[in-house]
Amino acid sequence: MAVGTEYLAEQPKLRTSAIVLGAIAIAALLAAPFFFYPVLLMSILCFALFACAFNLLIGYVGLLSFGHAAFFGGAAYFTAHAAKVWGWEPLAAILLGVAGAAVMGLVMGFLAIRRQGIYFAMITLALSQMFAFICLQVPFTHGEDGIQGVPRGHLLGLIDLNQPLAMYYLTLAIFLFGFFAIWRIVHSPFGNILKAIRENERRAVSLGYRVDRYKLGAFVMSAALAGMAGSTKAIVFQFATLTDVQWQMSGEVILMTLLGGIGTLIGPIVGASLVIALQNYLAASDFPVLVLIGIIFVICVLLFRRGIVGEILEFTKRRSKGAA
Amino acid sequence: MNTIFGIPTPALYGQILIGLINGSFYAMLSLGLAVIFGLLRVINFAHGAQYMLGAFAAYLLLNWLGVNYWVALVLAPLVVGVIAVVIERTMLSRLYGVDPLYGLLLTFGLALILEGAFRYWFGAAGQPYAAPSQLTGAVNLGFMFMPIYRGWVVIASLVICIGTWLLIEKTRLGAYLRAATENATLVQAFGVNVPLLLTLTYGLGAALAALAGVLAAPIYQVSPLMGSNLIIIVFAVVVVGGMGSILGAIVTGYVLGVLEGLTKVFYPEASSIVIFVIMAIVLLVRPAGLFGREE
């Protein structure tokens, strides 16, 4: 279902302009907290990373996971517990969350990759719902209350993360690390095999690839990165609640990716920024956010399935072809 | 007092009955999902919302127009069926050529719109809907007291399931439907209006969900959240049963409902996840589902 935009890499001229654009984007992100509310920016960065992690699976393997909230929210719980109850250093707590999400990804992925397409979506949804029920019942998550008042702590025992700027730059560093990890995965030989599986699974099998292992590997990586986003969010916002593990959250990350552009590297970032900004804007009004999210879903699916970035890429591609 | 495995029998029978009721709804909803999926190749995520819509239609018909339960039992599915036909004609039919995942995403969006809108108008709390006077009270079955309405739901759902099964397996319309599931192009070449068949199927599936919603209204409260809570469990039921067979969907629904009820007796902590655990086991042992075919 992806749009296939390995187009940038094939065109040296565009590649240079992509590097320039990337440098400008990083400079803008470094300067951003001086112009915008840092908490909003950090929220966007966390969700952008979450959407990028989700996109790794749908965009490059063609697997629609309807259960990514389990990794995002699960990791948030692990990190919050480690930081608050065990008093761990924030980075160690985040790493624990990532490891926890990776293990969950291994278990859920092992079950879910046994079916394809629509069944895969339903299985991941059901398993994440099961996880949400478990989170509601086990004591360490504190049920409906969630884990509140998580200390941000001192990074490596040195830098006080209660300073908004320090927290922002840590979040940005984690986001960039995650984004470049995904970029590396997508452009590695491993990533190419994933794309081959997406395009034609049977052919990949006949070429001798053990497709299930590649799918599981991608699933675990995607889960770990989604967990990284959730863990960071738990430190930034200092709480972990049931909201983050429920199916609505899985739906939201699908929407962010779909809106921005499935299978494009920066699409999920654009989508996440728009959705978070919109939610932030609507928080003051009493307009039901759920209805709006639903409407955006319907519009995206019916009118522009490539997403915003995907449509722009397609447009420039067609124009450059027309010129040549 | 009689006991089985240390559990008093009335408690056991009571939970089996509750399980049978829940199973009735699992069966009716997974049946509708299977019928729609069979022909349209779309997983109808809005199925839960259509079930909720059925319950709300009954509630609103009663409170705004004074229409009683029995009339609502006919009117609500009709209304929801017509809405579904409009949805299929204007939106879903545009997606038949593309990846089936888009159908799932579209219906997911529709489910969010419906749930969000009803939550906005009625709040998240449930509204009570009284059972019709003819079906209130309870009968003594000798081994337990059975509320009449609950007995009615079990019987009605059995009739609905068997009726739908007969419609698909034994009638001419059902034969067209099954043929179109196998090879739509060929059936169209024989002069059957396949697009119309698709529209009717979606309408029928949604009407079934709405009918289940009306039946559910007096048991569970009428709430905007009733659909989304149920639909995810029904997805698990569908994965367990496999969507290859209508009968399989029905049987799996009832069996899982009863198993869930039994879990409530023997190990209540696990009752909310038992169906998902069974799904995981089935995936390990028989990935295609109990009644499914590998595609």
CATH class of chain A: Mainly Alpha
CATH class of chain B: Mainly Alpha
Strand residue content of chain A: under 5%
Shape of chain B: globular
Domain count of chain A: 1
- Indicate the multimeric state: heterodimer
Measured distance between first and last alpha carbons of chain B:
52 Å
Write the CATH fold name of chain B.
ABC transporter involved in vitamin B12 uptake, BtuC
Low-confidence stretches of chain B: none
The SSE string of chain A, one letter per element, is HHHHHHEEHHHHHHHH
Tally of DSSP β-strands of chain A: 2
Detailed description of the structure:
- The complex is a heterodimer of chains A (324) and B (295).
- Chain A has one domain: ABC transporter involved in vitamin B12 uptake, BtuC (Orthogonal Bundle).
- In chain A, strand 1 (154-155) and strand 2 form a beta hairpin.
- Chain A contains 14 helices and two strands; from the N terminus they run ααααααββαααααααα.
- In chain A, helix 3 runs antiparallel to helix 10 (211-237) and helix 8 crosses helix 10.
- Chain A is globular and about 55 Å long.
- By secondary structure, chain A is mostly helical.
- Chain A has a two-stranded antiparallel sheet.
- In chain B, helix 1 runs parallel beside helix 5 (148-170).
- Chain B has one domain: ABC transporter involved in vitamin B12 uptake, BtuC, CATH 1.10.3470.
- In chain B, 70% of the residues lie in helices and 3% in strands.
- Chain B is built from eleven helices and four strands; from the N terminus they run ββααααββααααααα.
- Chain B is globular, with a radius of gyration of 19 Å.
- In chain B, strand 1 and strand 2 (7-8) form a beta hairpin.
- By secondary structure, chain B is mainly α.
- Chains A and B meet through helix 6, helix 11 and helix 13 of A and helix 4, helix 9 and helix 11 of B.
